[in-house]
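# nightly structure sweep
# worker-07 picked up a monomer target from the shared queue
# config: single-sequence mode, recycle default, output format = structure tokens
# input follows
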Amino acid sequence: MNTIVDQLKEALAAARTEVAKVVIGQRDVIDRALIPIITGHHALIEGVPGVAKTLLVRTLAHVLGCDFGRIQFTPDLMPADITGTNVFNLQRNEFALIKGPIFTSFLLADEINRAPAKTQSALLQAMQERRVSIDRETYSLSPNFSVFATQNPIEYEGTYPLPEAQKDRFMLKITMNVPERDEELTLARRMLGNDSPEAVLAAGGVRQVLTAETLAASRAQLKQIVVREELLAYIVDIVRASRSNESVLVGAGPRATQALLLASRAASAIAGRDFVTPDDIKAMSSAVLEHRLILRPEFEIEGVTVTEVIQKILQQVAVPR
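# output follows
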């Protein structure tokens, strides 16, 4: 294994260790949360209330050591509350920009589907171009700008589905399930003392292991991960198969192809390899495609799930040798 991949693996392992001090269990979730960070993309985290979605993102921000901003999405939140607005200064007799929380490096969009589509769409330009337009003026954001949005399952009362264009800009959808019994027991024991997850984070028990510079270096190191030509074709075939599946009304677009390639590269780096395998691609397919596919109503009525459709697609597409 080359030295570059060793360095990348070491940095990712250190980040995982620090996050695990606060987030109990959820090892796969932590690994997947690191993928959009080192690839410079965004992630959507879904789970029922109380499974540490917000705590995970706050801990990641601390480990990153980047500027951190948080927006609590509510039904009455307006787009200007996110981007900022120009306010007239009577003393100077001119307009001055009051920047919104989007002007940061690491943005937590908490319970993003509590706000209607009009407000959610305020993030679209920032997520795609890392720029914000306010009153005909365009402002640049940090090159490390990343959005981690948490959402409750759409069946919960008071939630709105995300616009399709916005969902497509999230590289991954990470599902957080309730902890196992042993993990929940560990949490209960820690709550009796002074080492509850929130207390550990507040007391500085988690150290910073990444910086803006190391993030940029990590993205450069990912380019050293080898992807064979037949695996590129495998990725393309998987995404294209989602568009022709009989159960799917709207399949994944070209942005999903790019996301699956980058996610597979990052997954191989986390595993300590300098090459991508078909198993890396399979493992990342659900996270990349799940939030992008829309099933036909008649199949939804029959109880067909997106996860089942993705597994069927993976079985149909020939795996390269």
